[in-house]
Design goal:
Helix content is 13%, strand content 35%. It has 353 residues and is mainly β. The mean pLDDT is 88. It binds zinc ion (5 copies). One zinc ion (ZN) binds next to loops.
Length: 353
Amino acid sequence: MLSEDDILAAVRRGLGAAGADPAAFPAHGARITRHLLVDGEIVRSVETREERTGFHPGSLDLSDRPRYDDLDGYAIPAPSDPGKPSALLLVRRGTVDPRPCDCTNGRRQCARCEGAGDVKCPTHVPCGGCEGRLCCLSCEGTGKPALKAADRPQGETGTRVDCRECGAEGAACGKCRGAGRKKCGVCRGSGTRPCPLCKRDGTIAHDYCGGTGRYVRWTEGVVERRPVVDTFKETSSLPDRAFAWTREDDGWQRVDTLDGDPDADADLDPGIAAFLKPRLGHHDGEVGRRVRVRHLSLARVTHDDHPHRVHVVIPGPVTPRVVTVRSPRRTRQLVLLALVVLVAAVAVARLVS
Ligand SMILES: [Zn+2]
Ligand SMILES: [Zn+2]
Ligand SMILES: [Zn+2]
Ligand SMILES: [Zn+2]
Ligand SMILES: [Zn+2]
């Protein structure tokens, strides 16, 4: 961390470069506050373990999967990369149970045709030419002519022909000639057609065993690890734009792969240790973590003689860098001044017009 003398010297150098008199920035009247900028992430690998029923249609070689007796007690090394999700499948010892399926060589009787291969089909279908209207004005398809023929339905324009059922002249639908129905085109009047489900086979492949006639069941242990990421970008009592004052090549200090207790890490800056400590608690199921943080301690310097300026001294790789910004009070004054000018301009514009 920079000493107060280093900080004041840096400010004076900065003012000197800008053409100001370094002596105009005496230690007396200078106020220095220090602020920590931290950004980075903590990635935890969080693990869950559960048992479920393993099932595979047909045969499956499970000999290469690790066996366990007690899933919670099964030791697995910590992840080499906590940011990478993973899933490990294990087999509980003695549970692998391959068996034949209760179907017949992977096939079951077709439920639609009950094994017959054919389904019923109507021998006749209604005539498309007269459906819903009279197929014969005289006999209505019965073959027995009525005493008085019916009138043609209103709006009918098609030609009527002689009825093949009752012989009435010009009374029947031209398509069915009075029958009112046609032979079914699918079964050609036979009354049965191939089953659409099994295509005449009478059996269908059994879904459960995938048509193989066998399956394997076992108790499966699943160990899943997924990353939980906590990213942060914080400053202690400075606005967020403080990050914009910094550069990649400033004297950021980096913390990489810190596993445990910040108190145990002697090299760690006390400020950053205090920042990290509440974030480094152990999560349920945590099996590994990676911490990547960079931090920078800024000094904010004001002087009673120059209330409008704030000097930010940023540690660099060799010498500190100084960024001079307007004080918040000065900014407010300027905004107010701009408003006054605007109001005045509007007033003048009104007078002139
Ligand atoms: Zn007829
Ligand atoms: Zn007809
Ligand atoms: Zn049919
Ligand atoms: Zn069938
Ligand atoms: Zn089966």
